[in-house]
Amino acid sequence: MAWTSVTFAYGSVLTSAKMTQLQDNFTAVAQALSGAPAIVSLKSSSMIDAATGAVYVGDSPDTTNTTTTYVEIANFCILQDGTYSVRFLLSCSNAGSAAYGRIYKNGSAFGTEQSANSVGSWTTKTENLAFVVGDTVQLFLKGATNGNSHYAKGLSFGTAADYLIAPPLPIYLGDR
What we know:
Oligomer: single chain
Order of helices and strands: HEEEEEEEEEEEE
CATH superfamily of the largest domain: Galactose-binding domain-like
Largest sheet: 6 strands, antiparallel
Helix content: under 10%
């Protein structure tokens, strides 16, 4: 049994064959068969904005890094090809030590390195990036100097398509 794309014209008769296809599709989804949509879940700190189509992840607590080395702070899998508006917020504890954030794709730097010197407030960073099904999207954070706190939060993905970002297994700092 496999996923079957089923369409019905408005007002058409629902035959037993069509009903069987529908039942088989529920089974295909439950068994994660080829072609079936995946059942995914978002972290409890995630939400979908139905008005904009954005998926907001990990708005709180803020993620902190006190080193000059990039540290992965979020990791997600793309479930549909498309160009996504990727947004996150940066801040720092010392104006002399900027916070840097960068989007990675499949473990390699992909987006433009973003920076902010905003102490006590958040600077929004947004860029449009293209992804394909199965791509891993990561947000990395670092600081200009060691010892100062650098913050990131509010990672979101917006698109005109359906809401198709889902986190894989939980990622913790330093698990690579």
